Amino acid sequence: MLKTMSSFLSNPLWGFAPLACVLFGTAILIASQIGWLGSRLADFAELHLRYYGDGRPPTEVSQVGIWRWYSLRNSMIVMTPQGTATGSLTNIFISFDKPVRAGTLEVKSVDYIIPKYEVKEFNNRFAIIAIDETPAGILDISVRNR
Fold first, then answer.
1. Mean pLDDT score across all residues of the chain
2. Whole-prediction pTM value?
3. Are 71 and 90 in contact, with CB atoms under 8 Å apart?
4. CA-to-CA dists, residue 143 to 26, 75, 107, angstroms
5. Which residue segment(s) compose the domain that 80 sits in?
6. Cβ contacts of residue 32 below 8 Å, gap of 6+?
């Protein structure tokens, strides 16, 4: 048995087995990253939130392709020589159900003029949006591949 095993391992083709395993594993990794084996990228995702214009948290009106979302309202008091001023900033955190084609992220509303906002981070897995005081109405957030 020992003689048979040593003759098997001395075969020149045995040296290519580790290289073949590495190449096969690399091909599987690349294929899964570009979508050949895993789920494909979603073309769009939408989230519609109803804000109430006061301290209440928003409610979800509808969504497509969203796994989770969270709206964090930060209240501020600014002290100036003229007195104090209050305001709020809302951060919206969105996680997509499956990776989306990170094209265009739109923030709009048919109910009011959108306050100043900034997209802090946006990729195919999540988005973070900072927006000034949100008045009462429905805020529409959509991701499209345009």
1. 82
2. 0.69
3. yes
4. 31, 28, 9
5. 44-144
6. 38
